[in-house]
Structure formats: structure tokens, C-alpha cells
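Need the bound structure for inosinic acid, inputs here:
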Amino acid sequence: MNDLPRVLISEAKINQRLQDLATEISFDYRGKEITTIAILKGSFIFFADLIRLIDIPMSCEFIGVSSYSGKTASSGEVKVTLDLTEPLQGKHVIIFEDIIDTGLTMQYLINNLRSRKPASLKICALLVKPDALKTDVHVDYTGFRLGKEFVVGYGLDYGERYRQLPYIGVIENEKKN
Ligand code: IMP
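Answer from helper R.:
Posting the output first, comments after.
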């Protein structure tokens, strides 16, 4: 493959940051049990790597939401394509998201999940684009802050490609819109 994206955040840097996040989360929730929710598809690799570093009892849930379908700009429309299997009432819940861009997806999910009455609800995002935010979503645990560039790899796709890359990269020499 000669069109590999340029490395923006290396595998080593990701691993290092995940260890920090795991230490913070394990400390904040010591003595408790948590329900972790991975937002599919993009967070599956981040989620799998991070939860294995968290040192407290947990259950794992998955929720699927519709994505941009190959486009690089948010439509603001969010559709749940796969729902949780367990109720959240009274649980300490952490949502794991790959990237928060406009924040519209996360805003929708927070409202949706809060209505299920968890004891607490926090957000962990691998990547946040603060300059692109259109909502005032509060992110409790952030991996890395980015500019407005469109990134791929480590679970993130462009038109369903590049998810398997072990690093976070930027596509060069390609028109994305
Ligand atoms: P938001 O609703 O605009 O915050 O978008 C969130 C979703 O858009 C993420 O879960 C990703 O699926 C997708 N997304 C946003 N920015 C990027 C990017 O730079 N690369 C890949 N996917 C992205």
C-alpha cells in the first residue's frame, strides 16, 4: 500500500497516553464497579486497549450509532443502530468515544443514556477537536486534542478504510469531500 496516511500520533504515544488514562480512571472509581460503553464502530480498538489497563471490576456494553457514511462533515443526525443489552439504572457508567468533533453525536448519546437513570455518567474520548465543537459537551477524560484535521487509523475510518492502522494519521493527496 503506497498511500499510507502520515503518522500524526504514533502507536507508542497512544499506548503511553492510554496508560495515563487507565491510571486516572482506576483511581477515580476505586472501590466501585463500572459499566463501560463502547461507541461503535470507531472506538472498538481504543476501548479494547484501554479497558485492559483499567484495574477495577467492570461490565462491557456496546452501542452503535450512525456515522457520516463516507463524508467528513457532521450531518447532526444520529441514529442508534445497535442498543445496549442491560439497563443502566443505578450504574456508574463511562462512555468511550473515538473522537469528538462537533459534539453532536455525544450530545445525543448523553441525553439518551441519562434518560436511563445511571448513578453517574462520564465521558472518555481518545480525541477531541475543541475548535470544531458546536455543543458544550464536557469530556471527563481526553486522550489528545487535535485541530480540525480529519484523521484516520486506530479504529477511525474514512469511507470504512484505515481502521486497522496501529497509529492515528492524516490522509494526504486525497480529496475527502
Ligand atoms: P461529531 O458528532 O461531529 O462529534 O462526530 C463524531 C463522529 O464523527 C465520530 O464518532 C466519528 O465517527 C466521526 N468523525 C469525526 N471526526 C472524524 C475524523 O477526523 N476522522 C474520522 N471520523 C471522524
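Comments: The two ends are 22 Å apart (CA to CA). Residues 34 and 101 are 26 Å apart (CA to CA).
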